[in-house]
Amino acid sequence: MIDLNELAKQLNNGSLSVRGVYKARWEPGDYIGHTKAYPTENTSFVFALRGQAVFEFDGISYELSPGRVAHGAKNMTLNLKVGPHGFEYILIHYALIPSSGASAGYSMHHYALDTGENPIIVELLHRLNQTSATPGNIEAFEAKGLFYSILHEMLSSARSQSNRDSKHAIERVIDYIHSHYMNSFSLNELAGIAGMEIKPFSYHFSKYCGIFPIDYLIQQRMKHAKQLLAMSSCTIRDISTRVGYSDAHYFSRLFKIHVGCSPTLFRQTQGNYPPSI
Q: pLDDT (tens digit, 9 = 90+) per residue, 196-253?
């Protein structure tokens, strides 16, 4: 997963230049673009305009259609499989000289970004294509400004799209916790349900819910434990098991930390007096 903030930092801190802009269309079929003997010569962004195609950089495939951008670097293999309606796109070759002491970062990798269909990006791309075909220093300067505008719009749109996707993923995890709070699972498993790595998952979850995933799980377990303590005749050991804790003493300690009193005392305050452990 691409860290958009880090990508923006690398693009901002380095020195960018446009090396070529090309609008092209491929007809349906399979194409061998570059091999190990003749790898890609430029670092590039591919912006889909119409149709669908699969770009395969060094054996890794990215499906492109309007609203998705692919990035490839120098010295890569590239195969192309174009869908039944052809594929129209704008290709931007660029160079990035990293800031002093910094690595080339993402500019040396292949990846794809979901921006969603954005008419502003499309308009800027057409303007860049026209401007780059016109000779002159003023036109070259304008082209560079348009490229920066495209990158800004691309990153902003990708962030918005990521936030929407992340929200759906976090809601999926929340639903899972609500249905399976009594089961034992790790942070890594929850991140897997969201389709994320642990670090970004924890960040998005805490941003959306206000607390970290494991704390939310504990919160849900305590909520159900309080309901059982107040309304059932189950023993505390049984309640502990029902909400996901095999050790009743550990459950009691955790309950006191999060609720402020022991399970037995909480039950008594609710006017429920069945036998405890």
A: 889 889 988 998 899 999 999 999 999 999 999 999 989 999 999 999 999 999 999 9
Together in a domain, 220 and 154: no
Question: Which tokens is 215 given?
Answer: 């704390």
Note whether 21 and 120 are same-domain residues: yes
Q: What is the span of the domain harbouring residue 219? A: 215-269
CB-based contact 94:43 (threshold 8 Å) = yes
pLDDT attached to residue 95:
95
The string of DSSP codes covering the chain is ---HHHHHHHHHHSEEEEEEEEEEEE-SEEEEEE-SSS---SEEEEEEEEEEEEEEETTEEEEE-TTEEEEE-SS--EEEEEEEEEEEEEEEEEEEEPPTT---GGGGS-EEEE----HHHHHHHHHHHHHHTS-SHHHHHHHHHHHHHHHHHHHHHHHHHHHHHHHHHHHHHHHHHHHHTTS---HHHHHHHHTS-HHHHHHHHHHHHSS-HHHHHHHHHHHHHHHHHHH----HHHHHHHTT-S-HHHHHHHHHHHHSS-HHHHHHHTT------
Whether residue 168 is contained in a domain is answered as no
**Does residue 25 lie within any of the structural domains?**
yes
How many structural domains does the chain have?
Answer: 2
Instruction: Tell me, yes or no, whether 17 and 135 share the same domain.
Output: yes
- Segment 86-100, tens digit of pLDDT: 999 999 999 999 887
Give me the pLDDT at residue 190, please. 94
- pLDDT of residue 163 exceeding 70, the answer is yes
Tokens of 40: 């890609």
Looking at the structure, tell me whether residues 31 and 149 fall in a common domain: yes
Q: What is the rounded average pLDDT for all residues in the chain?
A: 92
Mean per-residue pLDDT, 123-130 = 97
Residue 192 lies in a domain: no
